[in-house]
Design brief:
This protein is α/β, with parallel strands linked by helices and 733 residues long. It has 24 helices and 24 strands. It has 5 domains: 12-77, no CATH class; 96-228, no CATH class; 239-392, Rossmann fold; 399-544, Rossmann fold, CATH 3.40.50.300; 550-706, no CATH class.
Length: 733
């Protein structure tokens, strides 16, 4: 049957689909024409084949029309043959391992050959298929028997299928060797996952790719399961004290010295430290460690300073002052002093106090803190089976609470105002500067040298008042007449919470000083009420209750042992294995590991040796701070590439005119650079420059803080800047 053009009759939709695939066929729109009558001016004519409604605007070059029609009708004939061939294939190849299927190209067919690969432990057997395409003309004149023989014995299909089966079998043998025959985590457990992945996949390449991903995930799951078991069996955080064999081998004597602020706790402990043949002072702040080092050196006891960000060696020193995080559990001494033991309750750093309490190797361990911590330390001593002597001290000067809230105009010379963030410190400073007062500022982002200079300005009377964060409560020598709280709540790293009674007492206790102020006063200013302050003072500190668990965290050595056991250098995996350590029924709990969890992905994305990863995992960097994260990433780049990172690439070349926050970030960059240079001296060669750079930054920051000018606000960001100007109607003059 033919149409009125003499061409074979065909489905108009089939004709259209085959025609538009021809490179010389175009449409009105593609030719830039509006009507078919305009086509002749371009040398184009209608195709002349039956087309579906709405799709009859196909055009071809006039001189090529006959040749194009011949090509398209040839393709139509092959498409008809293909349809017949597919029907023949269903009949001729029934029950065979070969099948004929359609292709996207409507003039070709796809021959598919399949077979199964049975394998022990895998059910059902793995079914694979391979395929190749044929032009419909190549197979269309064969009988059923000829078609079956032609495809069943096609050498290309047989070779491809044999190759696919061989590759799959080789991969299974390899995976079985790597997985082993462990009853819990051997090939049997892996085979279950491989079988599920193979159920809906029959292409060898696709299946092998999926198996690679399944094996990687199974290997991580196995490592994590083995790691969790290893942690519970070999580290046993429920008996955390056993991880410190040197301390357990000593007959330690614990001396708990408790009392309010300004009761002489530190003096008593430092006296014992000075009289010992060797010893260590463990401080909550680098500044306190520095002050104790200078005090002992000044009294004739050579002492070395060791912190994460600074190291000052003193010739002949047998005493050390350090921050608590760098406590050495393997160096026995006669006397150790653990300051601010109530920091056990700190969510971010409490683990370091637990480690010191359990593991500092000293014959006598002096533990200093607030009275509220006594039940917790007594319970720890009982758990350790070590004798505990308790020394209670009384405050040397009376302390009273102001009975009303003060206003800004009532701030007097010698007052200390307490805020709980850098932003609030600067805001209060600006308010007081506007009152005509000179102000010293002290907060955590300042380098120790800057904090000391600010404290010295206040002590010398160069600054009328001091505005400080709660760091003022940790031993800073800042005698003042009154302590005024500008807020009664603080952000503790995860949420805003009310101050605890211990925190209020410790901070308020800075008011008054024996020999300088006969009585100290504390109260609230601008916000809060005396009644609210009193409620905080009287509320029990649940974080320091007798049954409160002590926070613990894995050490570098523990992480290294675990990595060796599970044969993995993936720090995220190591952290997670410790993240589920069993501590129930013990006096311990796992500390917050969020800082390690933030660092781990950054390290695992790098090509770093395990030792370097573990060093950097414990870096003293706040990766939630954009500037700290930038410096940390630069250090990672240098260590990974084996290139040198000069200090000058991390800090500004010129310091004049820089804002305080920029200077503070530069100071933190110096601290982190110094810490990393001790681990990677080849990649960070400017360790000797850090101190001079830090001093220059600190001096410039001190000058900025000493200025009586108010802080300049940064310019507003681009975008909406308030209500739009009125454009219509009368304007006010």
């Amino acid at each position: 049957m033919t149409d009125d053009t003499g061409m074979p009759a065909a489905d108009p939709h089939l004709v259209h689909d085959l025609a538009v695939a021809h490179p010389e066929v175009t449409t009105l729109g593609a030719a830039g024409l509006l009507r078919m009558t305009d086509a002749e001016t371009r040398g184009l004519v209608p195709l002349g084949l039956p087309l579906p409604k709405g799709k009859r605007d196909l055009l071809v070059p006039a001189e090529r029309r006959e040749a194009i029609l011949l090509e398209i009708t040839g393709r139509i004939d092959r498409a008809h043959r293909r349809d017949a061939l597919l029907a023949q294939g269903r009949r001729a190849l029934a029950g065979s391992h070969t099948a004929l299927l359609s292709c996207e190209d409507r003039t070709r067919v796809r021959a598919v050959r399949s077979d199964e690969l049975p394998w022990p432990g895998l059910s059902p057997a793995i079914r694979l298929h391979v395929s190749r395409t044929f032009d419909a003309l190549e197979l269309s004149d064969l009988s059923d028997a000829e078609l079956s023989a032609r495809l069943d014995h096609d050498p290309a299909l047989h070779a491809a299928l044999d190759n696919a089966l061989s590759r799959i079998a080789a991969r299974l043998r390899d995976l079985a060797d790597r997985a082993g025959d462990d009853p819990d985590w051997g090939f049997a457990s892996l085979a279950e996952r491989l079988g599920k992945a193979a159920r809906n996949r029959s292409d060898a390449d696709e299946l092998l790719d999926r198996w690679d991903r399944e094996y990687d995930q199974w290997r991580r799951d196995r490592a994590e399961a083995r790691g969790r078991l290893y942690v519970d069996r070999h580290f046993d955080f429920s008996r955390f004290e056993r991880l410190f064999p040197v301390a357990r081998g000593m007959n330690r004597r614990l001396v708990l010295v408790i009392g309010p602020t300004n009761s002489g706790k530190t003096h008593r402990a430092i006296t014992a430290l000075r009289e010992a043949r060797d010893g260590v002072y463990l401080a909550p702040l680098r500044l306190l460690a520095l002050e104790v080092m200078e005090r002992l050196n000044g009294e004739g006891t050579p002492t070395t300073l060791i912190t994460g960000e600074e190291e000052i060696r003193t010739p002949g020193a047998r005493h050390t002052a350090s921050t608590i995080e760098v406590m050495d559990p393997d160096r026995p001494v006669e006397v150790a002093v653990i300051d601010e033991i109530q920091m056990l309750a700190d969510p971010a750093r409490g683990w370091a106090w637990t480690a010191a309490l359990m593991g500092v190797p000293a014959e006598s361990v002096y533990i200093l803190g607030a009275p509220e911590v006594r039940p917790l330390v007594e319970r720890a001593a009982t758990h350790l089976g070590e004798p505990l002597e308790v020394v209670e001290l009384e405050r040397k000067t009376p302390l009273s609470m102001l009975d009303r809230r003060l206003e800004w105009a009532e701030v007097e010379r010698g007052d200390a105002l307490i805020a709980f963030s850098r932003r609030e410190v600067h805001s209060v400073r600006d308010t007081l500067l506007a009152q005509g007062l000179s102000v010293a500022a002290i907060y955590g982002a300042l380098a120790p040298a800057v904090r000391r200079r600010e404290a010295a300005r206040f002590l010398a009377g160069e600054a009328d008042v001091v505005v400080a964060t709660d760091a003022i409560g940790m031993g800073l020598n800042l005698p003042c007449r009154r302590v005024l709280f500008t807020a009664l709540e603080k952000f503790d790293g995860s949420s805003v919470r009310p101050l605890s009674a211990t925190e209020v007492k410790q901070i308020a206790g800075r008011a008054g000083r024996f020999g300088q102020f006969e009585e100290g006063h504390f109260g609230v200013i601008a916000r809060g009420t005396p009644a609210a302050l009193k409620r905080l003072l009287e509320a029990p500190d649940r974080r320091l209750r007798a049954d409160a668990p002590l926070p613990v965290r894995p050490t570098r050595a523990m992480l290294a042992r675990l990595a060796s056991h599970i044969d993995s250098a993936e720090t995220r995996l190591l952290v997670e294995c410790f993240g589920s350590a069993a501590t129930s029924g013990s006096p311990f709990r796992l500390a917050d590991l969020s800082a390690l969890r933030r660092a781990a992905p950054m390290l695992d994305a790098r090509r770093l040796a395990l030792a370097a990863k573990l060093d950097l995992l414990l870096a003293p960097a706040d990766l939630e701070d954009a500037e700290d994260a930038k410096v940390f990433a630069a250090i990672l780049d240098a260590v990974e590439a084996g290139e040198r990172l000069p200090l000058g690439r991390l800090i500004p070349a010129r310091l004049d005119g820089l804002a305080a926050d920029v200077l503070e970030a530069a100071s933190r960059a110096c601290d982190l650079y110094f810490w990393a240079s001790r681990k990677f001296p080849d990649a960070l060669p400017d360790r000797d420059r850090v101190r001079s750079a830090r001093d220059a930054i600190g001096q410039r920051l001190s000058e900025a803080l000493a200025s009586r000018a108010r802080r300049r606000e940064p310019p507003p960001s681009s975008g909406f800047r308030g209500a739009p100007r009125k454009r219509f109607g009368p304007h006010r003059r």
